[in-house]
Amino acid sequence: QVHLVESGGGLVQAGDSLRLSCAASGRTFGSYSMGWFRQAPGKDREFVAAIGWSGENLYYGDSVRGRFTISRDNAKNTVFLEMNGLKPEDTAVYYCAATTARLRLGQSRHYNYWGQGTQVTVSS
Question: Which residues contact 123 (CB under 8 A, 6 or more apart)?
């Protein structure tokens, strides 16, 4: 069982940066691949980024590649999402998720555990 808690969301202006954190409970955090997804009102949940258990394999959604960076600190049971060059279309609730899967990390159905989400709002 993994319990995930996101933090770091807020209201920012276009072009600003934010760093989201996701703290995980449990002693087996290092064995999970981790992902970030987001969901805007009236839209489907969208894949943002994922990172393998070792931190070596990184994956990004097309809309954030080059602007967002995912990383993890297994010693602190935490995964991060550094978001730069934020745009109004990045406005959404951002969710952290954990999976034992090693492949297809861009698909939300493969994730076993989800956090409650943190709101990110980008004004123009």
Answer: 11, 12, 13, 14, 88
Q: Token pair for residue 100?
A: 């034992």
Structure tokens at 55: 């931190």
Average model confidence (pLDDT) across the chain: 95
CB atoms near residue 51 (< 10 Å): 24
84: Cβ–Cβ under 8 A, 6 or more apart, which residues? Answer: 17, 67, 68, 69
**Tokens 């991060």 appear where?**
80
Alpha-carbon distance of 5 to 43, in angstroms, equals: 23
Query: How many Cβ atoms from other residues are within 10 Å of residue 71's Cβ?
Result: 15
Q: What is the pLDDT of residues 8-57, one digit of tens each?
A: 999 999 999 999 999 999 778 889 999 999 999 999 999 999 999 988 89
Residue 1 has pLDDT above 90, yes or no: no
27-32: which pairs have CB atoms within 8 A and are 24 or more residues apart?
Answer: 28/2, 29/2, 29/74, 29/77, 29/98, 30/74, 31/100, 32/2, 32/98, 32/99, 32/100
